[in-house]
Amino acid sequence: MSRAVAGLNRRVSDRGLAHVATGPAYDPFTARRRRTPEWLVNYTAGLVLGDLAAGALALVLVDLLGGAAWLTSSTGAFVLGGWVATLGLLGAYAERRLGGGPDEYRRVLGTGIALAAGLGAGLAAAPEAPVRALLLVGLPMATMLGLLGRNLQRRRLHRARREGRMAKRVVVVGREVALVDLVRRLRRDSAAGWQVIGACVPDPGSAGGLGRDGVHVLGGLDHVASVLDNVRADAVIVASASETAALYLRELSWTLEGTNIELLVVPGLIEVAPDRLQIRPTSSVPLIQVGEPEFRGLRRVVKSAIDRAAAGVVLLIGAPLFAALAIAVKTSSPGPVFYRHRRIGKRGREFDLLKFRSMVVGADAQLEGLVVMSDGNDVQFKMRQDPRITGVGAFLRKFSLDELPQLINVLRGDMSLVGPRPHVTREVEQYGDDMHRRLLVKPGITGLWQVSGRSDLSWDESVELDVRYVENWSLGRDLAILWRTARAVIKGAGAY
pTM above the 0.85 mark? Predict the structure, then answer.
């Protein structure tokens, strides 16, 4: 990086003295600091006020049950302050976690557990202390209300970001081919809150791909500091490339010190969840260790047991509904109640996938004549107005009720509740090496594909979601996908 670029981080009056060794070349103490975005200040203040309100409501309940006066006493103010202060100390207000979901919720739960441990220890040491109601009622209530408040605020933040508000302005830096992919990924994940306002590339004159994606090239790699200042950016994201080697990143980080502009680096790894990454320090360089995906072991056994137990319970409880749907299918059009279709499962094993029949008998024979009218992606055939679908079948498909018999497949061990979508042989034959990763696990009734657009997804997007799930599955993510599936089914988005 040139000395001129480095000098942007120094006082104007000092720049003419660069030849005199009167101070450091990169001086964070004299940098022009970017103000924290107003929306971020207001959002964080809203979280603090929400947590105070949650604590106050919990104290009101404690007062009603115990006849005390916690809320109106100085001790009550101390308790509320301790609640919010502990949340802050445990990172519940850290900007990088805002709107993140699980990690954000873990901080609130961790605060509740830490304070419960402290109160429990105090109660054991002084049994006569009037904190029993606070420990048994107030703290659990404050924690639950805090989680609810976080959820409501997170929804508001995500909605605003989808509308183009409450996002950080970011400049992306690196090779154009890497930036095109990065920009598309950031735009697909609008809830993450990164609004790309421009790019810096090694050769600005020959950059054309970014322009087709609506991203302006603002300069070269040596112009990053001045570009960030001119466009009032909140952050810079550097894509992995030979031009962005260690020396360049080190000097860029020095240049940005004291400016309150975030520096983020894309590690060159895709589809790897943060919990699989660990920093392994050495005396000279930090190393990133990537943990292996889990395809066997205790957690897989637990997942299989939960799948089969849940499928059995739902089949038992939902028997009246299944009977009603079966009668509706049988009486609406001639043919069997169930539709059996050969699919490819774990490690390439074939199995018969079960569905409630939603099309006329002989629908498969009509497929060849309809392929040219497909509304699906390059590999999968889908039609928004498929003439083969019956009246009852359209209703079943809209709310995914035709998928319910796959619970029998789960009981048999052919499928899981959550996993990649099972494909037919014709589709599997077009798999690349990355898509073959999905054959390492059982297919699922639902998965990331269903909560991310379903039939509206392109083939590449479907591949990316399936590989991401296979690489990073966990029981917690499975529960989150099941919850999101319920919402997607109710909305009927992408179902046809």
Answer: no
Q: What are the distances in angstroms from CA 29 to CA 8, 9, 264, 286?
A: 13, 9, 21, 27
Q: Is there a contact between 101 and 154 (Cβ–Cβ < 8 Å)?
A: yes
Residue given tokens 């590989």 in the structure block: 467
Of the CA atoms within 13 Å of residue 65, those in its CB half-sphere come to 16
CB under 8 Å, gap of 24 or more: what pairs does 378-383 form?
A: 378/458, 378/459, 379/427, 379/430, 379/459, 380/423, 380/427, 380/455, 380/459, 380/462, 382/455, 382/496, 383/496
The tokens for 467 are 């590989």
Per residue in 248-259, pLDDT (tens digit) is: 888 899 999 999
Integer angstrom CA distances of residue 457 from 97, 159, 282, 398? 28, 21, 43, 17
**462 closest CA partner among 349, 383, 378, 347:** 378
Interval 332-361: pLDDT, tens: 888 899 999 899 999 889 999 999 998 888
Element (H, E) at 312: helix 298-317
Q: Where are the alpha helices (DSSP H) in 126-282?
A: 132-133, 139-162, 176-188, 209-212, 224-230, 246-256
CA gap 259, 233 in Å, rounded: 11
Phi and psi at residue 162, to the nearest 5°: -65, -25
Q: Dig out the tokens for 84 from the structure.
A: 């919010």
